[in-house]
């Protein structure tokens, strides 16, 4: 009888152990499958993000190429046509020249010169030659000089990262230039500011850019809906840069950009 009881206990113990082993195995297999699915999902998400980033890069690159083409056409074709028109007016020499004629000539030349200046500025904004030949800092200084001529806004650049900026590739320099250009344009159009500052500093191989103005500021809930911020974010995302914004109504606007220079 004792032997039978022992056998029963043994069988129960074996069955219990087998059941626990099966449960443990099931749990381990389930956890393993969950981890595998999670890893696959993360890989898909990373692949999708990489694909979206690549598409964004292609779109921005195409936009820059189109800007260059339009800029060249404006400078070469339209600029040449306007110059020819000015030359024709200068060559005009009628037999009868009264005060009305001289007034017409002066007015025509003044209008043509203004058109040539506008075309030159538009072509420069579309495709800044200075950026390609002399780099980011020189292009921003030139942009600030153009803005300062208006007398409405004083824009200044302080460059304490000259050596690091020289290492930046042209596509990354173009992206940063477009971001700062967008920020300056936003200040001019919306901030009602009198001063804006741009500071370049270096932290090892990290380029730090701080842009600030003393304008009206803006509500962050409003700024997140604007196309300007989307353009800025897209360009910074493509080159792997990050940013933080500080602004409040009546407290001005500032943005800090960090770009790792590889």
How would you summarize the topology of this molecule?
Blueprint: H1 2-91, H2 99-126, H3 129-134, H4 136-148, E1 154-160, H5 162-165, H6 170-191, E2 195-203, E3 206-213, H7 220-223, H8 227-238, E4 242-247, E5 253-260
Parallel strand pairs: 1-2
Antiparallel strand pairs: 2-3, 3-5, 4-5
Helix pairs in contact: 1-2, 1-8, 4-6, 6-8
Unreliable residue stretches: none
Rg over alpha carbons: 32 Å
What structural class should be given to the helix and strand makeup? alpha+beta
Named at the architecture level, the CATH assignment of the largest domain is 2-Layer Sandwich
Task: Describe the overall structure.
This protein is of the alpha+beta class and 262 residues long. It has 2 domains: 1-127; 129-262, 2-Layer Sandwich (Heat Shock Protein 90), CATH 3.30.565. 68% of the residues lie in helices and 15% in strands. It has 8 helices and 5 strands; from the N terminus they run H-H-H-H-E-H-H-E-E-H-H-E-E. The protein has helices spanning 2-91, 99-126, 129-134, 136-148, 162-165, 170-191, 220-223, 227-238; strands at residues 154-160, 195-203, 206-213, 242-247, 253-260. It has a 5-stranded mixed β-sheet. Helix 1 runs antiparallel to helix 2. The longest helix is centred in the N-terminal third of the chain and has 90 residues, at 2-91. It is elongated. The termini are far apart. The mean pLDDT is 81.
